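INFO worker-7 received task bundle
INFO bundle size: 2
INFO processing item 0
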Amino acid sequence: MEEIEDFDDWFTNFKLPPVKYIAVFDPDTGAVISVGPSHVFKDQKHKISVDKELAESIINAEIKIDNCVVDMNSNTLEVAEIKSVYKIDDVLHRIISKKDSEIKKPDIYIKYDSKLAVLKIEMSTEFGGTRKTRAGIKKRNFVWAGDTEMQFFITEYNDPNLLFEVVTVTINDLIGKYKLITDFNYPKFSVYTRRLFKNYVIEYR
């Protein structure tokens, strides 16, 4: 009876060790080949540890394995998120003025300088652009589908029906640089767009 009681106690208190996950990758390209528990890949040479949440997202197909690559300089697994032009919102949204907005980390930042008659369009450093925030944002890897375009509709103030002009900017225009629209001189205007990103802000000076 004593042995049975000891076994019951042991069984009650027994905890399986945490599962460690591994990503196996191609050493030439960094492409991820397989992801799973470490014991499955004991004989694999080219592999790195992956945290549980990310590994399970890949295993459950929430993240496509084809979008995963190993950065062999930092020895980390990176996910390249795919953005498609077909994800652009069909509804026109007015871009909110910085002074009226509670957005702290805009994805797209527009600044109008009335003295210089210049409109400056920037993308957040998170997406590979030039606009930094005080808090700082870690850059993420993205694969953009083609020359994805954003259109900014310059209209009468708060009236999208009276269109002054359309400014078209591609994602490539904002990777590592910003876009300047010169000779841009309207006394008062609003900017509308069909959103590709979530957060847009405009600053008037």
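INFO item 0 finished
INFO processing item 1
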Amino acid sequence: MKNLLTLIIAILICMDSCNYSKNYSKISQADSLKKAINDSLIKAKSDSTVKAEAERQAYLNRPWKLGTFSDNFGDKTNEKYIETQVDGSFSNSATSDSYLFAEVLLKKNGAGIFLHEYNKSGASEKFIGNAQVQMKNSDGKKLVINTSKEWNHSGGILIENFISNEFSNFKSFIKNSKGEIKVVIFDDYSSVYQFTIDATGFAEEFSKL
């Protein structure tokens, strides 16, 4: 009788142990599945963050960027423009190969070139008389534009369709170029300004105007 009781107790202990193992196994599988889902969500969120940051950096590194003009009160208008900013050099009777900061801006019906001597925060140069803009792209094609117009009273070179479709030619030259375009600008007083712009993405950005 004692042996039978011992056997029954042993069987019950074994069954309970088996049930515990089975339940533990079920819990482990559920936890593993939950962990796998969480890991996937974390990875997807991480991949999305990495992609968003890559797209942001790609945008920041694009040579041409879209902007909006502001009125005299600092409020944004409905008129948009695209712009690229580059470093270059300039020479005149007083200096040689000094630092130049150049901005090239295009709106729908005109373009402006703003040249800042020595530093970026300096005023844009005001041209007295004529300015000649010479451009050469990576295919060796050239364009020469002569203008005597200022962007505004603060300075800058204005290029528009005044006599011989200067702006249309300027826009088409950049649009049909690939990669780097070398730019050299001469004034009537022997100053020479040199810089290089990148035509990459120009057509796409201009289409947003």
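INFO item 1 finished
INFO post-check item 1: DSSP finds three helices and ten strands in the chain.
INFO post-check item 1: The longest helix spans residues 2-61.
INFO worker-7 idle
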